[in-house]
Design a protein that fits this description.
This protein has about 600 residues and is α/β, with parallel strands linked by helices. It has helices spanning about 15-25, 30-60, 70-115, 120-170, 175-180, 185-190, 195-220, 220-225, 230-285, 290-310, 315-330, 390-395, 420-425, 440-445, 455-460, 465-470, 490-500, 520-530, 565-575, 575-585; strands spanning about 350-360, 365-375, 380-385, 405-410, 415, 425-430, 440, 480, 505-510, 535-540, 550-555, 560-565.
Length: about 600
């Protein structure tokens, strides 16, 4: 399982904010409209305490004459209308911001998955399944929480803070100054916890990726887990991971719980300070009771957004971590695009490796100066012990990786100059571990190549898969996730049909008959002679009975071709290949 112990990159807050702003740029006009709604909602919020102060001072304390709208009833109706208007504009602002934020997240999800689809296999190997799943799901969802909980009220809160400060200063500068004394303490508490919160979120995100990868890995390999009775062992591994996640989330809750009570205490202390400072001024008539009432309301309104932002500060830090992690994927270099390259057209099947060297980690060589040339229509096989480099040859030919040195030519052109779309359309592979997608037989054979039903049926017939497909309902028959409603042999036959459906110039069979019974193998072998006619075929095989008739056989040993020739020539040589064949015969693996 990947992801264990992998250190998360340092979070760049400035980069995260820049990316969020860049995502919002297409919605500039709508954001301006949101600001207008926020200003109107805030104007209503600022007006309501002022209206209430007039009722208290003019009518309740001083008993002024009420005439028409200048009355308790008139100002009461005005107060109601102001509150309704504030709620209406607040609702309009929230709906508009919600639509913008969901549009941004919609775009972000598509960008992340599109990047993963076009990511080189080497990067996918390096990141691991858990990390990529976390980026595409958990991290995007965290950004969703940021927009839903914070951004949706950000404009309103910022403008409200500015407006309240201005109104309080206009009412009474002295009381306004007292009201703002709590702000430095709030910032001190918040920023003192900043580093702890950010570091904890980085750890939680990393552990989330490990848990996702662990669960995906073990569900896929559940048959192996059960076969070897490793349920308790795997549960212990998961419990250890889950405990690390538990500790991280508890720490997160503790840090978050410190902020909210602190804000409430500061808020109440400021209100108490106002009441104490105002008592003497009200007694000598220097301050009206209604103004004090308005001030206590403004202080509550002033601290509400501050309290909310402080409480949501952990969500902000989490969002910044997630945005930076998503940016790490989106900004990764080496994206594969199907249209890249200058050479296009059909692959004929001329293959040449010219002194190819390759290593997966940049240190340990897997292939060393491998050279060979296959003319169109050649049937070639690679044999050797596990780890000799056989499958690596195939991976390089399909350009899942690029060689460290040397060249790989297809029809006389370096594979790096081929358009990936045409190169991989012309080189089809039947792998040992077959993967079928949830859907139906047609989709798994067609793979969005827009093949006709006749072409698909022809491929099934060529692969000797038409009989059992007809029995289950034809090409519209359901295929469950990973094709688990088919036997291993049936999945292999469907994979065989998928490989030949597009009439490729090169056909690769990587241990294609390793996991099937002898009857199914006979069905595949009977089809190989027909479908291989006129195209280059490359076999990777442990079952040596499948490659006796190949035009040339290569024996690989620790990344080096040590023998090459026909079956007869290599048997006459009496070297490593002959030893493999004799050992297979002794074990009853050859007929």
């Amino acid at each position: 399982m990947r992801d264990h112990g992998r250190e998360e990159p340092k979070v760049n807050t400035r980069s995260a904010v820049s990316r969020l702003l860049q995502l919002m740029r297409p919605y500039s006009a709508q954001l301006i409209l949101c600001m207008i709604f926020a200003l109107l909602a805030n104007a209503a919020a600022l007006a309501s305490p002022a209206v209430a102060s007039v009722i208290i001072d003019d009518f309740l304390r001083e008993g002024k004459e009420q005439r028409g709208l200048y009355s308790i009833l008139g100002f009461g109706i005005l107060y109601l209308l102001v509150e309704i208007a504030g709620s209406f504009f607040g609702l309009m602002q929230q709906r508009r911001v919600a639509r913008i934020s969901q549009s941004i997240l919609h775009t972000m999800r598509e960008q992340v998955f599109d990047k993963i689809l076009h990511m080189p296999i080497s990067q996918i190997d390096d990141n691991g399944t858990g990390r990529l799943i976390t980026r595409a799901t958990n991290d995007v969802e965290t950004v969703n929480e940021f927009y839903s909980d914070i951004f949706i009220n950000l404009f309103k809160d910022v403008f409200l803070l500015i407006g309240i400060a201005g109104v309080m200063i206009a009412f009474d500068p002295y009381l306004a100054l007292l009201s703002l004394t709590g702000v430095p303490f709030i910032f001190l508490i918040t920023f003192s916890l900043k580093k702890l919160i950010k570091n904890n979120f980085k750890k939680v995100k990393a552990i989330t990726g490990q848990i996702n990868g662990f669960i995906a890995e073990n569900i896929s390999g559940m048959r192996i887990v059960k076969a070897y009775n490793r349920q308790k062992h795997k549960l212990r591994e998961f419990v250890a991971l889950n405990h690390r996640y538990f500790k991280g989330t508890v720490t997160q809750i503790v840090l978050n719980s410190v902020l909210h009570p602190s804000m409430e205490v500061i808020n109440n202390l400021v209100i108490a300070l106002l009441l104490v400072a105002s008592f003497g001024r009200i007694s000598d008539g220097a301050l009206k009771l209604g103004v004090l009432y308005a001030f206590t309301n403004y202080v509550k309104k002033f601290f509400e957004p501050i309290n909310d932002l402080a409480e949501k500060y952990t969500s902000v830090q989490s969002a910044f971590v997630s945005v930076d992690r998503i940016g790490e994927i989106l900004d990764a270099e080496g994206t594969e695009m199907p249209e890249e390259g200058t050479r296009d057209g059909a692959v004929i099947g001329d293959i040449e490796f010219d002194n190819v060297c390759f290593s997966y980690d940049g240190k340990t060589p897997v292939l060393k100066n491998v050279s060979f040339h296959l003319k169109p229509g050649t049937k070639a096989a690679f044999v050797g012990a596990t780890g000799a480099g056989k499958t690596t040859v195939i991976s390089l030919l399909c350009r899942y990786y690029v060689p460290d040195s040397g060249r790989i030519l297809v029809d006389g052109t370096d594979i790096r100059e081929w358009k990936l779309r045409d190169l991989r359309r012309g080189i089809s592979a039947v792998m040992q571990n077959v993967f079928l997608f949830d859907g139906n037989v047609r989709d798994n054979i067609d793979m969005h190549a827009s093949l006709t039903d006749e072409k698909i049926t022809e491929a099934l017939v060529a692969a000797n898969a038409d009989e059992f497909v007809s029995e289950i309902g034809g090409i519209d028959a359901r295929v469950y996730e990973q094709g688990l409603n088919f036997s291993t042999g049936q999945r292999q036959l469907l994979s065989f049909a998928r490989a030949v459906a597009t009439d490729p110039g090169v056909l690769i069979l990587d241990e294609a008959t390793a996991n099937i019974d002898s009857v199914t193998e006979e069905r595949i072998q009977s089809a190989i002679g027909e479908i291989s006619r006129g195209r280059t075929c490359v076999f990777i095989a442990h079952r040596l009975s499948t490659i006796r008739d190949c035009d040339i056989i290569f024996l690989l040993d620790r990344g080096v071709i040590v023998e090459r020739g026909t079956h007869g020539e290599l048997m006459a040589l009496g070297g490593g290949y002959a030893a493999l064949v004799n050992a297979a015969a002794e074990n009853g693996e050859l007929e």
